[in-house]
Amino acid sequence: MRLNILAMGISMALFWGAAMFLVALANLIWSGYGQTFLEVIASVYPGYQATASFGQVIVGTLYALLDGAICGLVFAWLYNCFAPKGAQQA
Fold first, then answer.
1. Which of 3, 26, 57, 84 has the highest CB neighbour count under 10 A?
2. CA-to-CA distance for 29 and 25, rounded, in angstroms?
């Protein structure tokens, strides 16, 4: 079985973008929620600071959407490189 590369990219983008959005939004509402997670993400995404502001929620979400899409595309492509091409004829 082979993976649809575009579908995997979109799925991972939406998954990771939603996860980042929800954690950053929860941190905006409840001070300190997921702070360590957001600080780790801030060390990876240039321009994103783990501060509780709506602008940073948007910046983090956009980075996560892009990051998720790239990771999903690469994962599906690599999987398809190693997956069997189809049933072998005997």
1. 57
2. 6
Token pair, residue 56, equals 């940073």
pTM of the model: 0.87
Q: Are 36 and 90 in contact (CB under 8 A)?
A: no
Q: From CA 34, how far away is CA 15, in angstroms rounded?
A: 17
Interval 5-20: pLDDT, tens: 999 999 999 999 999 9
10-14, long-range: CB within 8 Å, 24+ apart, which pairs?
10/69, 10/72, 11/72, 12/68, 12/69, 12/71, 12/72, 12/73, 12/75, 13/65, 13/66, 13/68, 13/69, 13/72, 14/65, 14/68
Q: Which residue has the tokens 């649809």?
A: 4
User: What's the token pair of residue 48?
Assistant: 């994103």
